[in-house]
Amino acid sequence: MPISSRRTVPHGRLGAFARFVLEHQEMVYNVAFRLLGEQELASSVTRDTFSRSFPVFAELRGEAARLWLLRVVTGICHNQLRRGGSQCTNGGTAGDSAQEMLCLLLPEQRITLVLSDMQGLNYREIADATGVPEGIVSLRLSRGRIALRDALLAHGDILVGDDPWLT
To answer: Where are the alpha helices (DSSP H) in the chain?
Structure first.
């Protein structure tokens, strides 16, 4: 194919895409890292997420862009976890007990907990991002929080006190 007939991307579109990536890359990487627990794999998933977003990024604005990216990164991570491609670890970060505890959760619970408690999504948004009904989101979130609480108690990171939810 002659060079002149190759599909080219206008420079302005590349600049807009670069701004789009800069605006969202930290969020995408953080979700991938918390779900997979490996820095290199999280970086790879982040690149894959943005390569998938290039054809449609111009139509994505504001909250719609954020939710679309969360849906994509969550799907890629879920597939990775389902294939067993990640042995969730603390990512080589000494003392990151939050990551260690997240890695003890079932993947579906981990995904739901990260989207809810670290990204601030509501049940409907999590249901949209994960493709499951809101009732399942609620169940996974409840079970994930209980499992996380139990792991933190066993690890000694929290103590049973006067708080009724810990007893």
So the answer is: 11-36, 39-53, 62-82, 97-102, 107-113, 123-130, 134-155
